[in-house]
Amino acid sequence: MESDHHGKLNGMGVLNGKDDYAISIDPITLTVNECMIMVSAMRRSNRWSSGGVSSLFNAGELFGTNDDDDTFSDSLDISSILNNHSSSNDKSNESNNVGGSFNKHLQGNPLLSSFLQLRSILLESQNVFDIDSLTILQPFLLVIKSSSTSGFVTGLALNAVSKFITYGVVSTRSKNLQTSLIQIVSSLTHCRFEAAEQSADDAVLLRVLRLLEKLMESPLAYLLADDSVSEIVQTSLSLACNKKRSEVLRRGAEMSLASITVVIFRKLREIEPDKEIAIDLQTNFTDTKLPEDTIGGTLAENLQANVSQEQFAVNKDPQEEQAFENKLEPSFGIKCINEFLGILVSIISPSNQYQHMESTRVFALSLINTAVEVAGSQISKHLSLLTMIADPVSKHVLQIITTTESLALLKPALQLFSTISIVLGNELRPQFELSMILISRSILPRQSKRKGDQTKGDNLQTRSPVSRELLLESLSLLWSRSPTFFTELYVDFDCDFDKSNLAVDTIKFLCQLSLPESALNTTVNVPPLCLEGVLHFLNGVSERSKTFRHAEKPASANTRLDKKQKKSAFIECTEVINKKPKDGIKRLVSESFISDENDVGEVANFFFTKAGRLDKKMLGEFLAKPSNSDLLKHFIGLFDFEGLRVDEALRVLLKTFRLPGESQQIERIVESFAQTYVACQKDGLRENRPPQFVDAEGVDVEEDKSEVVKPDKDSVFILSYSIIMLNTDLHNPQVKRQMLLDDYKRNLRGTYNGTDFPEWYLAKIYSSIKDREIIMPEEHHGTEKWFDDVWHNLISTQDFTQSTHEILESSSVCEFDKELFKSVFTDIVDMILTIYKGASDDHVLTRLMSSLDKIFNICLAYGMEEELDGLTYRLIEMSNLTKTKLQKVYVDDNIRPEIPITQIKIEGRKGDLYVSELSVWFGRNFKAQLAAVMLFRLIKKTNCKITKSWDKIIEIFMNLFENCLIEPNMFTEFQRKIQLGPLPKVPPIFAIKKAKALNNSGLLSTFSSFLKGYSDDPPEPTDIEIESTISTMDCLKSLNVSNVFSIMSKSGQANLEKFINLLLASLPNYSEEVKRVYESETLFILETCVCFSLLLNDERLSHVVLSKLKNHQLSGLGELRLIAYKLLLLRYCEDETELIATVTRAGSIDRDLASKYGTQIVQPLMSLTDEDSWCCKILLKEESYWNTMRFYGSLQAHAFDIVPFLDALIKSSEQEITPENFLPILGLLDEISSLGAIGSQYECENAASAAKSGDDSYYREVITLSKNSIDLTSTLAAMSKGDSFQKRDLFYSAVQALAHQCFNPCKEVREYSVKALSTTVLSFDVDRKEAFNGIFECGLFPLLAELTKPEVFQGGVNGFDKTYSEIFRLLCKVFLKQVDDLDVETTGKVWTDLLGGVEKFHSANSKFLTPELTESTSESLKNLLLVLQTNGFLSEKNPEIVETTTEKVEKLFPHLIGELHVQPEKRASGEPHAQPEQEVSATDD
């Protein structure tokens, strides 16, 4: 008996171990101990005290003798338990006024005997499980149920039962377990005891509640039947809802019932799903009431009755008990759950709101919420529960939400709504849709009515600000829990033809409430709450858009989006129909909703099937027109009224349209109705219709032998009119005396086929109309009647068997995101920008701009160009950067009313600062700066794609340019490559050269500014103006405007072409107003266009730009740049006329300008002759081209560029040198060679000074350049030996060019030229006298003559005597080289001219001849004389030549006369010289 009994609870609460005990003590010993405790406590009570021998004997038996183990009771600490309560029991005995006769009666009470009997049974047993569990529990349960026991004794019994369950004494191994559990529940739910202090009584009841909760949470709960669980629920609920109970007890009951609710609804996971509602389940809970609270303390005067009842309970028939025990009931299930939920529904019902405390309704709502949370989707598997949630629960919750102003009630109702929406939203879509619509309108009543909306309720109760905040907080849970909430709404509702645009309307609703002014009607927390919802939607769409790929749409998405498109078209049609039905019907044809507007049947069918979105009043009036009688008949003929009473048929009919006001129109409708109704009634109606037509609360129908009602057309007509009148009479508040049933019957006498309608028929009609008014469509908006009618229509069309939910694919989600975002784009952007304009907190502004950035990303991902363009316009407007009137914010006295553009230097800041009105006010407007940042971010994100808004963006560029706020040189690489100078900035109005220091504040600074206002100096900007300008410059630096042009340069051809056209369209027209900015802006635009045109290399576009390079009123420098642009474009534009004109114009500009800035012309000019240029051949032959090149070649600044060009042309492209361009090229080279004359200055300076000058690099470069040019001239001379060149004697021109440089003032160049000339001339083979004469006549003799000039020979201080000597020697060499091959005449002419030249030289420069020069000349002449005498030229054969030679030599060099060995002969005058002729002839041969 004292052996150790171990047991453990597993994870499910089931006992494991050798004996399945959860304790170490023997369970029999434990049970005996509990019996002893109970008996001891009862004996100490005055009611149970016993003084007879029998009592002592029984007590002795119970506690044992002295021979027994005295320590047994001590070990169980029984005495301590009894002693602890002896004093209180004694006091209760003393205060007990019950007489001795009553005590005598109680001496043999069965409660004490039951414990003695149980003790005997236990002592005789070895295993507690051998004893029937009910036998063990029954004494304790009798005590619990007994009203004659004290609360203390009842508590001991409750403690014992709790131990038995907890310790496993009562477990799954126990006999008759289910019956025992049922009896435990019954005893606990019928617990009675003597009333005492409230706190003591509450303690006992709390123990009862705890034991019920423990029992439900234990593994044994599965054995409880439906009735037992219902008892537990009802008892707990009655305690929780009894306002007479203490707050502590009610709260304890609430906590216990909350735990019990979790257990009950968790059981749904184990219950087999049902497809239909069981017959035995209750469905109508209208009259359900809370059970009475009878548990607990009982007054003394009721004790006698209670005792007799207890006696009867103890002495029940054993056979009856045995039958009860053997009957096993199934575990609790859907029945008790349904009943529990039904009780809660009745509590929350608005119709019962005055029967229950508000706290009770709040508690019921929380329990339903717990039930839905726990059961979750399991509810949808049980049609009875789903139906209950769908109709009474959802309806009552929505009524509470839309009507109550009690925050305590509103909060749990909203929580329950959110839970139902989240858990059962897919099954209860109609309820959710209506709830969302009514909640939104409750928060924000509609200002304008939209016809055709069956759920509009403009008269909904106006809500308090706090209530509106709570409503929105509840809705926020829906969207915050799921990033795809709004998209799912869009799919489920907006893409459903028969549902509202819930997603779009909800987002627009949130956008409207996000505006700050909505706080006037709500609370300050509402706008940020709604804004958070919209931003949550944006975040989700933005994140999903990153995974979007442009591909074929999924089939499911296509189908739904097609429906949405069809729905949108249909709504537009209905809007037209509601205004002008005939026009709307034509629109239906155009949208393919009907095929023929003249087909009455098709139009009627459309009205019948789509009446939900039509204006019911319009439809009724339209159908009732006389011209539409056929349409009316077809329309009503589509209804099926079979099996319906006339009033029921009228209800069905009048749901589709509203009766017009004119009696004739009503008559036509009723007449058509009567005809159709009679046609539908085949067998007529009896009082008890077949089961399918019986109301839900009806029972099985027995065979009906009542009269069949089958009225004719006239009867139906009259009855219909009477029903309409009855409906008005019974429900019009202005009718003081309502019609009674007897009155109604009397009015219809003789109208049923000539007799009276059966009484039951008219009674049912009367009752139906009285109980439920026929609500005309669009009537009683916002009232309870309207709500009931709308809800009834909703429920009547709901079919849970058809409800399905399709899980969206990720690709499909993006498609729906795109369409939804398009629908709400304008509202979201308007909302964000409106808040942005009024916001002042930097965090809010940054958050809004971040949201705009997400909008950019979404639009880009989904290709929403039109929306992006609209957003760009808005940002442009907010940026304050266009040429419109500036928005002036934060006005300061230190800012001038008018701020001219002023250039100023700031100490410590690199570069100049341009202060202007734009720079100041933009710098002071943080919102404008932020908008500008977002604008340029958007521009760059779109890769600068040109849209409609770009005309304004161009305007911003021009405005910034005109205010000197952006750098004009966007294409520095382009400028460097073609050596274009930088573009000029727009000249400021004032320029202050003196650097200004900032932070000059205080009185002196203010006074200084005041004095400057009266000075003639330029107005100096204030510190605030400068600081604002610096802020502007910093912002513009972050914008990186130049990067826009860089991105644009990388875009496609079509985009670049649009950009160029926009720029060209923005070219300014010259006027006095724009004179200051005209040239700079024109050049900036044109350079940009030229650069992009060259980048595209599109001839057509280049022609367009080229045409814009004319007729501009520019300065000389601007004109020069314009010519450079033209030349660049003409390389690709085949326009020879324009080409020649531009080249010619390039050579006629001012020489000083050409010298300083002509590089930008030279480079394009040279590029025109590239091999791949279309005009290469043309220009190389064009004289004007070479003239222009010669013009620039004559300028030192450009000659360095031209020489390499000529070098490449002459050496690498010899075929390009032709007789036609030979002379122009030669002339160009001669101009360049002549530039070396500057070297004479350098030579003179060096000659005058003892040491060389420090930096002679420039002179050396020029001299080298001249030498290179001379080399190229020599090359040309060599090329001129070709046949084509010799035909034009172009060699002489080359000799002339070289000879021209032989008297160059620069000695080095002169000497180099002499050498080149010597090489060229001496290398030329003369094969005829004309060539020989040409060399001398065209080159050498003119050179000698030039050197003879005193100003040449005498003006040079750096060696002209040497040059003359070399030239003379060259002349002699050439003469000697060819003299033997020439005839006498040619030789004589050259010789005579040579001597004449020497004579002239000596005559002109005799005083300046040096001995060396004289000696050199005489020596060369002496050699000539010797050679000429040797070859016989100076002989008697040529007497005249000899005579002339003698004369000249004697005059010039008398000492050479001795060298002449022949004297001139005397001859007769006129004698011919026959010999020379013969020699010439011989030579020719």
Describe what you observe in this structure:
- Residues 1464-1485 are annotated as: Disordered.
- Among the domains are: 8-228 and 296-332, no CATH class; 570-615, no CATH class; 616-694 and 707-777, Arf Nucleotide-binding Site Opener,domain 2 (Arf Nucleotide-binding Site Opener, domain 2), CATH 1.10.1000; 864-1009 and 1017-1113, no CATH class.
- Mean pLDDT is 80; it is low at 1-19, 51-107, 300-321, 448-459, 691-701, 1001-1008, 1010-1015 and 1466-1485.
- The termini are far apart.
- The chain contains 67 helices and 7 strands.
- The protein has 1485 residues and is mainly α.
- It is elongated and about 190 Å long.
Strand content: under 5%
Q: Characterize the overall form.
A: elongated
Helix content: 55-70%
State Rg. 60 Å
Structural class: mainly alpha
Strand order, sheet with most strands: 6-5-7
Helix segment count? 67
Distance between the termini: 167 Å
What value does the average pLDDT take? 80
Uncertain runs are 1-19, 51-107, 300-321, 448-459, 691-701, 1001-1008, 1010-1015, 1466-1485
**Major beta-sheet overview:** 3 strands, mixed
Number of β-strand runs = 7
Please describe the structure with a list of short key phrases separated by commas or semicolons.
67 helices; single chain; Arf Nucleotide-binding Site Opener, domain 2; about 1500 residues; two-stranded antiparallel ribbon; disordered N terminus; mainly alpha
